[in-house]
Amino acid sequence: MATFLYKLGRLAFRRRRIVALLWVALLAAASVAASTAGDPPDDDFSLPGTEAQRAADLMEERFPGVSADGAEAKIVFRAPNGDKITATKHRETVEKVVEKAGGGQAKAAVSPFDNEQQISQDGTIAYAQITYGVNAMEITDKTRDQLKAAAELGRDAGLTVEMGGEALFVEPDMGNGEIIGIGVAAFVLIVTFGSLVAAGLPLITALIGVSVGISSIVGLGPVLGLSANTITLAMMIGLAVGIDYALFIASRYRAELMEGRDREEAAGRAVGTAGSAVVFAGLTVVIALSGLAVVNIPVLTKMGFAAAGTVVIAVLVAITLVPAALGMVGKRIFGRKVRQANPETGVPAPDADAKPPLGARWASFTLRRPVVVLVTAVLALGAVALPVSKLHLGPGFNGPLVMLLDQKNSDDPQGAGERIAEKVREMDGVAFVGPAVPNEAGDAALMTVVPEARPSSVETQDLVKDLRAQAGEFRADTGTAVLVTGLTAINVDFSQVMDDALVPYLALVVGLAFLLLLMVFRSVLVPLKAALGFLLSVLAALGAVVAVFQWGWLAGLLGVEQTGPIMSMMPIFMIGVIFGLAMDYEVFLVTRMREAYVHGESPSEAIVTGFKLGARVVTAAAIIMISVFAGFIGAGETMIKMMGFGLAVAILFDAFIVRMAIVPAVLALLGDKAWKLPRWLDRILPNVDVEGEKLAQYLDAQKAVDFRKGDDGDGGPGGGGNSGTPSTGPGGGQGAATAQPQPTAV
To answer: Do domains 72-168 and 400-485 have the same CATH topology?
Structure first.
């Protein structure tokens, strides 16, 4: 792997203009496809195999044009000056308002005078309920305007009228998260590199990659059903990993230049070593995101594959476009002060008296106090994770329950509907039961059931289960098959599907990633430690999400307008994304340690070397990723806000506590045992050579060939007769592992 990527990096460096043009062409083609595509569709929350979905499918067949997840609106009336809302003139006004609101896309309008439970005990307040045949995203502006006009009709007559419900939902402002994230990323990169050009390189290449990915998703959106939420999440993840991957390769390139490589050789080695880590880190993210398909919920599958696609593009950009861009910037990869101080090479001179970097000093401290660091870090994350024990999942939407009565085998459909309605009214937790409304064929009917508790409550979920438990009795008594659906029931089923899928999903994703990390690190304990560290990160992140979005801590500061149950899809999606991103930092940081260990350093020395060479870059990468995710907290869409916050705090915990504290502490305690692999396992596992051991052997062999050519009169050791000019053959020229010539000016 490292040897192939080394050759690819050198090729991209030499043919930089061609590589850049190919990416520009891809971007242009994707942009054209996006510009000709229609608007992205709404999320389709279908749940294959659930009762709610079976009922929804049957409803579509028997009641064309009626949606199981239909939107709902409530209109609340209050009589003035202590009057009764039941007074004749107020009653007439209410009826007119309900009649006007019940037009257009509405399928049912229940007046408070049709159900006494919709009138307060003192008779001054009442509410009407309007149910629509389409979901909230399909409600037209005309229908909303009609609702508002109906309310004004009541106000003009002297009533106080207020409205609520998802029928009034307006597409939220998604915020400018990507702009905020890019701005913070630019600042961090300038501080890290000390050069505007070097800082701009990861940003520009990442933006090209994410633009290609997002434009492709937009172009395919109408065909594959990729919604605006899918696009936003793909952008969030693609932008974060794109900047990080480019940052790691650019940083390794600068390090190779400082060791005396010429620029093409430095690009090849950077892609061969850091690029190998990028490929395998990207693979862990792709596995985690693609694994969402096992949940068997189309919307999650689409989100996972779309985001995984942007990660694949980010990896391809990092190993092709980044080395090409490095060739274009030349000496400007370092700041002006460095170039002025070293005009011949443009590379900073080594400083033997310089203090060890902060990362190396922290690693040395951890080696002296591994138990203290480990216990402190674990206890801190454990404390933050405590709110997870109170995690409550819920649909987060309002809506009545809908009972679908399949009356094909009923001798008396009307009587059956009345008997079922009577029995449902007697059940605990039921506020209102509407009459059974038959279809034109008379073989099915719909019945609306309004729970007493709010839709996201445990009581309403219990009511759904109780209604389904009574289905057998209903069928035996009336010959009618009863299915419970509606938006609330759909979300109850959604939560159950999430719960059932969690263990299989974790087993698949963690299992595949564990095998991948076995190949990368040639160790059993290192991947095991990585997985356990991830568990701490995700539990702490979910604890923070519960504290903010369910308990309301710092809710005002973060712009959380309403607290409540955590959305059902949040935990499993967070687990998938966090696992992939957590493995990124594990791969980047620990491969540096393994590289040093393989090349002869002791376990303790390898830890310090890994931190000396990688801690600064990992820190910068984590800050960038946190900034990108945190920028989306300002979105109006609750799911995007929650996802942005959850991912930001997860990266904070994982990068700065797990990878920077727990990892070196555990490795210090394990010593040589950390890098051991049973011989039988070593024989059957393919060697992917992330640490570049085979690459070093390849370069040594290439050096020997070059020397033999020189002995035959073909020129000096560099080959080609001119030792100052690198060969254009793959891996040739002045790239020998031990030659280390001075950099060539570009």
So the answer is: yes
Q: State phi, psi for 430 to the nearest 5 degrees.
A: -100, 125
Determine the residue type at 148: K
Domain boundaries, the chain: 2-36+173-350+359-392+493-684, 72-168, 400-485
Q: What whole-number distance in Å separates Cα of residue 278 and Cα of residue 315?
A: 7
Tens digits of per-residue pLDDT, 561-605?
A: 666 677 777 788 778 778 777 777 888 888 888 888 888 889 999
Burial bucket for residue 36 (CB in 10 Å: 0-12, 13-18, 19+): exposed
Which residue intervals of 406-447 are DSSP H helices?
Answer: 413-425
Which helix (H) or strand (E) element contains residue 679?
helix 679-684
DSSP-derived letter for residue 119 is: B
∠ CA 574-576-579, rounded to 5°: 100
Task: State pLDDT tens for residues 382-408.
Answer: 999 999 887 766 643 345 788 999 988
Second-level CATH architecture of 72-168: 2-Layer Sandwich (3.30)
What is the DSSP code (8-state) at residue 163? E
Nearest by Cα to 538 from 404, 447, 652: 652
Evaluate if residue 729 carries a pLDDT over 50: no
d(CA 601, CA 583): 24
Q: Which of 682, 361, 675, 680 is nearest to 529 (CA)?
A: 675
What tokens were used for 10? 């050198």
The full DSSP string for 361-375 is HHHHHHHHSHHHHHH
Mean pLDDT of the chain: 81
DSSP result, 96-113: HHHHHHTSTTEEEEE-GG
Residue whose entry in the numeric block shows the structure tokens 């280390």: 740
The strand pair at 566-567 and 393-394 is best described as parallel
CATH top-level class of 400-485: alpha beta
How many CA atoms within 13 Å lie on the side-chain side of 644? 30
Picking from 520, 700, 695, 726, the residue whose alpha carbon sits closest to that of residue 4 is: 695
The three state secondary structure string of 43-80 is CCCCCCCCHHHHHHHHHHHHCCCCCCCCCEEEEEEECH
Higher pLDDT, 374 or 67: 374
Q: Give the pairing type, strands 444-451 and 401-406.
A: antiparallel
Helix H, strand E, coil C: the string for 684-719 is: HCCCCCCCCHHHHHHHHHHHHHHHHHHHHHHCCCCC
In Å, how far are 137, 273, 362, 606, 610 from 595, measured between CA atoms? Answer: 53, 9, 20, 8, 8
Residues 491 and 503 sit within 8 Å (Cβ to Cβ): no
CB of 174 closer than 8 Å to CB of 635: yes
Can you tell me the distance from the alpha carbon of 313 to that of 239, in angstroms, rounded to the nearest whole number? 11
